[in-house]
Amino acid sequence: MSKIRVAIVGVGNCASSLLQGLEFYKHTTDAARHKPVGLMHYDLAGYVPGDIEVACAFDIDSRKVNRPLEEACFAQPNNTVTIWRDLPAYGVTVDMGELHDGIAPHMSSYPADRTFLPATEKPVDIEKRLRESGAEVMLCYLPVGSQKAVERYARACLETGISLLNCMPVFIVSDEKWAAEFTARKIPVIGDDVKSQLGSTILHRTIMKLFADRGIKLKHTYQLNTGGNTDFLNMLDRSRLGSKRTSKTEAVQSNLPERMPDVDVHIGPSDYIAWQNDNKVCFLRIEGEGFAGIPIELELRMSVQDSPNSGGVVIDAIRCLKLARDRKIGGPLYSISAYTMKHPPRQIPDDIARDRVEKFITGELER
Known about the structure:
about 375 residues, alpha/beta, Rossmann fold, Dihydrodipicolinate Reductase, domain 2, five-stranded parallel beta sheet, about 30% helix
């Protein structure tokens, strides 16, 4: 199979985990490939993780710009766990991207090893760089609240014909106007706001639906998360959280047979605890009424390494975009978006979405 050339926008923890994970699976033994740990698919319609390669990368941090990608992905303020330290020489130097609204003002008040240090040099010509690189898929890993920046890179995808995999809660693929533009240009896209493999959103959705399916009347619920990476530090600016809160809340509400009153659903805000680093801790509470109105309460605590938790999901999404490009399919891919994203253009229950993804992979379903 041909290689899948990827452009990375934002060489942070998620990008670092993805690159290390790809190297991990390249070295997986033949026996383990039949039942790989941590992947939904090792072989996806003939494409394996090792077929994904980086074409170019963009960032704005002075400790990453102009450095080889295999070094930049370990540079501060990245603090995710190390999966595979000995990365190959990719032949990719991190380019200076465009800043726009990519950094919240409050982050300048924190220590250098915890926050972003913007480079002062001139940004590269994004479209030119994308064309030269031969990239087919762009991974958008920009910070929460980067509305203008995400839109700028989405526009670059439209101009160059590159597929967008929007892992951030800025609504592009789920926005009718943007979706129509990608459809008109026959560019397949997936978004918005990636779900972790087993994270707070997918878990919250599943348990809430279980309550409803078993006849429990849902009364109240909350989801609170803490962590110590730049994502959690960035989200201390509550003004940047509008689309993030919408994305997570709708992911839960859409899975219920009857929508709960908004006042009874509280998802966020998140809080920043520096010493947690890339460890994310989720606290869930669900209150309901069972037989004869008797109260039922559930409290749950889950601890995960935040950035690696989306790696396997992204690997599948990249390969599905490649399949769509091979098949000349344009516009939003509804099945894989619903299965891997919190705010897809069409919300579909997870079990149905999973079945549709399998049918998409085999070619039984167009998108």
